Amino acid sequence: MSIKITWLGHSAFKLEAEGHTILLDPFLTGNPLAAAKPEDLNPEIIFLSHAHGDHLGDTVDIAKRTGALVVSNAEICGWLGTHGVENTHGMNTGGGYDFGFVHCKLTVAHHSSSFPDGSYGGNPNGFILTIAGKRLYYAGDTSLFSDMRLIGDQVIDLAFLPIGDNFTMGPEDSLRAINYIRPRSVIPMHYKTWPPIDQDASEWGNAVNNETTAQPIVLDPGASHVLI
Ligand code: NI
Ligand code: MN
Description:
Shape: globular
Strand order of the largest sheet: 6-5-4-3-2-1-14
CATH topology: Metallo-beta-lactamase, Chain A
Distance between the termini: 7 Å
Bound molecules: nickel (II) ion, manganese (II) ion
Helix content: 10-25%
Number of domains: 1
Largest sheet: 7 strands, mixed
Radius of gyration: 16 Å
Order of helices and strands: EEEEHHEHEEEEEHEHEHEE
Number of strands: 14
Oligomer: single chain
Number of helices: 6
């Protein structure tokens, strides 16, 4: 069983597995790296890590058009409900739930979370997604934290980690994170979108090869990796 992972720019990804489509943090409108139009995406589930505009993105429009289930924390699901998105599933940190073809557990993320309109977004999260026999860790926006070791104890096939610095961990801390998480492979995110988070991903990839046991997978916006 395999998963096709497509980077849509910033922290937005499309996952396709066993005929199902998932979106992670679908920020496309206003994203200089956006590699898809919101109207061309037809997910069954959208996982949303926190309320910031560069993650919430086009969630409301996509969910309203497709009826996709939006999975996030309780506060975000409540806000979505007042903005016309009724098909939501609220969770909280440490909780897991089986959505049939994918299991999701919310992890801690050290960051903040408020909506573009200023309302409270609850605590930010990451996700551990188990799908097609693989376990993925999507860190969301976060600093490095030592409990990433505990996430690594769950055996991670692939990790999505921010490397942009400034708003999240940067390249150096991401190497320490990789050594805590010990994934088979790692995809960088939350970089290159704007000048404050510009990073050289090929240099980062060399450092991952030299200093960790993980395989770096550096995608261009719109490019895919098939995880086997
Ligand atoms: Ni954020
Ligand atoms: Mn962000």
